[in-house]
Amino acid sequence: MKDGLLGQIATTFASVSLVAVGGANAVMPEIHRQVVDQLHWMDGATFANLFAVAQAAPGPNVLFVSLIGWHMAGFAGLAVATLAIMLPSGLVAFAAGRLVARLDGHPLMQAAKSGLVPIAVGLILASGLVMSRAADHDVLTIAITLGTAAFVFFRENSPLWALAGGALLGIGTYLLGLFS
Amino acid sequence: MTNEETPSPPPAAASVGRAQLFLGFLKIGLMGFGGVAAVARHVIVIDRAWLSEKDYASLLGIGQVLPGPNVVNVSIMIGDRFRGPLGSICALAGLMSMPLVILIALAALYQQFSAVPEVQAGIAGTAAAAAGLVVGTALKMARKLKPTRMALLFGFIAFTAVGIIHLPMLPTVLVAAPISILAVLWERKRQ
């Protein structure tokens, strides 16, 4: 029974892996469709809870998938889910990296890299906006977002300071009874 | 795209060892709250100076076009560039190991602590800061890359399509990336 479940975890996330262009957040709806609607591994509320936990932890957002594996089958599930979501796309990235390195210097590859740069930066800005829409719901959180953005824009200090500052401001204002 | 007069300083490729790859990406994983793209740039470009701003941006662009998490793809490509397949494994292991441990701990504690208001307030503040981190990083990269008008246009298009109009990422990239690359070719031909 458990082997069957592990196999199912492996095939489910390996198939998601190869279509996961844009990373974990982009395929979140697809994972939801499979895990909640089709396989009935958990209900929507559990799914949202696991997602919140994954967001609270540091690291790539893809860890959300590891957490689903852990929820389903403990450590074995975690290992299988993590490998399944990362291995197929990782092998593609490895091959692509080699190809890019080999073709480096070719005018077409130079143009391809130059053409991808603005898209990459535009997409980072877009995900920043999407994140701030989810996180900013009052004056304090909006101010924290703007303040961190300015800090990162003007300084080369470690971004960890800005994160710690945000956490402390959140706790501090709560304890002082502001913005409740 | 950057102006071509400032070639990216060749990173001291030989001097990036497996342990350094592991530790560098360990730091990225540990600091990457709310996603790792912003912190990854700080560590790779500023802190460790493994890649130039442009090399990092183009590698990230490739990572975004490929399936899989962007920074995971970047870690695999950077690891291989410096130390071959083992380098990829070191970079990836560094990136994932601590977050996985923390995640398990968090999941175990979540039920108890999610209701504590101080914890909620701290998480809310961190989430807001993480969003600002990503916004600031994108703006800073845009400034440092000294984009041409064409590049600014395509950056704006990608941002608007995904960030404002909420078009799905895959079709957006599949349409915008080739046009952007063609525009670069066209621009170079004119010069």
Automatic annotation (TrEMBL), chain A:
<dbReference type="InterPro" id="IPR003370">
    <property type="entry name" value="Chromate_transpt"/>
</dbReference>
<dbReference type="InterPro" id="IPR052518">
    <property type="entry name" value="CHR_Transporter"/>
</dbReference>
<dbReference type="GO" id="GO:0015109">
    <property type="term" value="F:chromate transmembrane transporter activity"/>
</dbReference>
<dbReference type="GO" id="GO:0005886">
    <property type="term" value="C:plasma membrane"/>
</dbReference>
<protein>
    <submittedName>
        <fullName>Chromate transporter</fullName>
    </submittedName>
</protein>
<feature type="transmembrane region" description="Helical">
    <location>
        <begin position="160"/>
        <end position="179"/>
    </location>
</feature>
<dbReference type="Pfam" id="PF02417">
    <property type="entry name" value="Chromate_transp"/>
</dbReference>
<keyword id="KW-0472">Membrane</keyword>
<feature type="transmembrane region" description="Helical">
    <location>
        <begin position="115"/>
        <end position="132"/>
    </location>
</feature>
<keyword id="KW-0812">Transmembrane</keyword>
<feature type="transmembrane region" description="Helical">
    <location>
        <begin position="50"/>
        <end position="68"/>
    </location>
</feature>
<feature type="transmembrane region" description="Helical">
    <location>
        <begin position="75"/>
        <end position="95"/>
    </location>
</feature>
<keyword id="KW-1003">Cell membrane</keyword>
<keyword id="KW-1133">Transmembrane helix</keyword>
<comment type="similarity">
    <text>Belongs to the chromate ion transporter (CHR) (TC 2.A.51) family.</text>
</comment>
TrEMBL record, chain B:
<keyword id="KW-1133">Transmembrane helix</keyword>
<comment type="similarity">
    <text>Belongs to the chromate ion transporter (CHR) (TC 2.A.51) family.</text>
</comment>
<feature type="transmembrane region" description="Helical">
    <location>
        <begin position="119"/>
        <end position="139"/>
    </location>
</feature>
<dbReference type="Pfam" id="PF02417">
    <property type="entry name" value="Chromate_transp"/>
</dbReference>
<keyword id="KW-0812">Transmembrane</keyword>
<keyword id="KW-0472">Membrane</keyword>
<feature type="transmembrane region" description="Helical">
    <location>
        <begin position="90"/>
        <end position="113"/>
    </location>
</feature>
<dbReference type="GO" id="GO:0015109">
    <property type="term" value="F:chromate transmembrane transporter activity"/>
</dbReference>
<dbReference type="GO" id="GO:0005886">
    <property type="term" value="C:plasma membrane"/>
</dbReference>
<feature type="transmembrane region" description="Helical">
    <location>
        <begin position="21"/>
        <end position="44"/>
    </location>
</feature>
<dbReference type="InterPro" id="IPR003370">
    <property type="entry name" value="Chromate_transpt"/>
</dbReference>
<feature type="transmembrane region" description="Helical">
    <location>
        <begin position="151"/>
        <end position="184"/>
    </location>
</feature>
<protein>
    <submittedName>
        <fullName>Chromate transporter</fullName>
    </submittedName>
</protein>
<keyword id="KW-1003">Cell membrane</keyword>
<dbReference type="InterPro" id="IPR052518">
    <property type="entry name" value="CHR_Transporter"/>
</dbReference>
